[in-house]
Design brief:
two-stranded antiparallel ribbon, 4 helices, flat
Amino acid sequence: MRFMIIVKSCPEFEAEVTPEAPEELMAEMAAYHEELARAGVLLDGSGLHPSRTGWRIHYDASGQRVVDGPFAEAKELIAGYTLIQVRSREEAMEWSRRFPNPAGRGKPAVIELRQLIELDEFPPSEALDMFKQMEANQKA
């Protein structure tokens, strides 16, 4: 089972010009991710630049349009993620409870966990077979 630990953004993260974090927080994050790696559950993880450097593609009946950032409601944005593969929801919960406070000790912050949909959860189809072949090619 794969889970994404989503670090929710906040006004401070959105205001940063360059990525900054106190040394203590960077050390905590590095130690946590090193522990995930030693346990063999870490798949990926990274921080994201503020939304002002991004864009969104909006789709509707007339097609699509591009909207440049920044985006309002920082609490709805994602500041980073860690992707893990574990045996159970309970194991994912245990790892998430150990995640360091991404804003720093004593500061308000939110992380969210979401399970990834696996290809085997979809009904069989030719398109699904294409995805499975791509996945197999990536692993090779």
